[in-house]
Amino acid sequence: MKVQNYELAKKLRHELHQHPELSNEEVWTKNHLMEFIKANTNLEIVDKGNWFYAIYKADADKPNIAFRADFDALPMDEGIELPWASKFPGKAHKCGHDGHAATLAAFALEINQEGADKNIFFLFQPAEETGDGAIQCVEFIKEHNIDEIYAYHNMSGFPYKSVALKDGTIMCASKGMTIHFEGVPAHASQPETGINPSFAIGNILGAIPKFTSPQNNKGLVLCTVVQIDVGEKAFGLAASKGDLRMTIRAFYEEELNRLQENLERFAIEQAEQFGLKVSFEYCDEFPETLNHKESADKIRLAAKHKGMELVEMKEAFRPSEDFGHYTKLTKGALCFIGNGEDYPHIHTTEYDFRDELIEVGVELFKGLAKL
């Protein structure tokens, strides 16, 4: 990677870090990235409102290869002293999407300067953290007949600058699930005259281990209770409304769907038994992130050609990523680039993206573009 491009990308990363924006609010971020591409390349830029992409055109008969970066931040404080610290309390790039976006922008500079024998698409995506960014962009895959799509995520726990990946599912499918019950209020001294949802919620909690048992599933299935909100803080009033909020998660999307169905069916049974009304809400929905073996093998080959350490993952990561929406429509793969075994983890106060990973990501992408 050219030194001048690295310095430009590092400066860009620091600027993005100083101006974090939450999912679907990334107006300044998107515009700043577009201006960077305009100022430093002659690539075609397509503005899609919340997101955009740039295109390097080689020849109409050549393969169409896409590379994706996310650019949203997290709703948390910076918490550490940095020369490029966030200027906005309660917002910070604590997942490294500033680094991902800077990497893709730097890769665009290198391809613009050096050329390629494929049509290269540089996709800048919003709202990965909430799971509704990639789904906004999937039209791009069919519109441009994308043959393959690639991305990376920085990740602690792997050797510094290593490339980690696996075939098949590399990150779990997940979603936030809320079960809402509504009964009938009563005086606390006469609970029998009302309908209290507490017992139904308690029975659901007792049923969760059966639904998530390894004996009943081929892969990891988790149901994590994140909040139980029942009744009011009024000791003279029996509870009549209740919400059970959970994150449901699985290695395989089909098993996530089955868990959801089991929970819904059981909740409906409880509602009928106790005379409750029941409803369901969902948020932060992520597909499983599935790597196609052919594409994962190309990452392996590109890493090998670049002399990068390769880590073969034994099982999928439990967290989720919305990149899987793309690989439902075309071939592709996502990999991790290591921050170091002992480096602070993403989504923690102590974390900041390591600038040196920009060059690793650019060189890996350049290697993929040549295969």
Q: Overview of this structure, please?
A:
- The protein is α/β, with parallel strands linked by helices and 371 residues long.
- The chain has helices at 3-18, 27-40, 97-114, 134-137, 139-143, 198-212, 253-274, 293-305, 324-327, 357-370; strands at 44-47, 52-56, 64-70, 119-125, 148-156, 163-165, 168-171, 173-182, 186-187, 221-230, 237-238, 241-250, 277-286, 289-291, 310-312, 331-340.
- α1 runs antiparallel to α3 (97-114), α6 runs antiparallel to α7 (253-274) and α8 crosses α10.
- The longest helix is centred in the C-terminal third of the chain and has 22 residues, at 253-274.
- It is elongated, with a radius of gyration of 23 Å.
- The relative contact order is 0.19.
Concise synopsis of the structure shown:
The protein is an alpha/beta fold and 371 residues long. The chain has ten helices and 16 strands. It has two domains: 251 residues, Aminopeptidase, CATH 3.40.630; 113 residues, Alpha-Beta Plaits (2-Layer Sandwich), CATH 3.30.70.
Number of alpha- plus pi-helical segments = 10
First-to-last CA distance: 18 Å
Biggest beta sheet attributes: 8 strands, mixed
The strand count comes to: 16
What oligomerization state is this entry in? single chain
Q: Give the SSE order as H and E letters.
A: HHEEEHEHHEEEEEHEEEHEEHEHEH
Strand order of the largest sheet: 1-2-4-3-5-16-6-15
The CATH architecture of the largest domain comes to 3-Layer(aba) Sandwich
Beta content: 25-35%
Helix/strand structural class: alpha/beta
Q: What fold name goes in the CATH topology slot of the largest domain?
A: Aminopeptidase
Keywords: Manganese, Metal-binding
Pfam family, one: Peptidase_M20
GO molecular function: hydrolase activity; metal ion binding
Cofactor: Mn(2+)
